[in-house]
Specification:
The chain is mainly beta and 66 residues long. The chain contains no helices and five strands. Strands 4-3-2-1-5 form a five-stranded antiparallel β-sheet, with no helix packed on it. It is globular, with a radius of gyration of 11 Å.
């Protein structure tokens, strides 16, 4: 089973490589670590205080804030 890089409660930046930024700026909190069996598809749920909903993101789309 693959190991996740981030943990629940960790503060991250959402770094989606899209031409249009359709998400809130600023920090996001990891709210859930989603189960997986494939290291290429590690996923998380993240939440910004600027949005009323959570987002599902791939591990490569987020970076830790020091």
């Amino acid at each position: 089973m693959a190991s996740h890089k981030f943990r629940i409660g960790q503060i991250v930046e959402f770094d989606a490589p899209t031409a249009q930024r359709l998400h809130a700026r600023g920090p996001f909190e990891v709210t859930r670590v989603l189960p997986t069996e494939d290291a290429k598809s590690l996923m998380y749920r993240i939440k910004s205080t600027a949005e009323p909903f959570e987002r599902s993101v791939m591990e490569y789309q987020i970076v830790a804030i020091a």
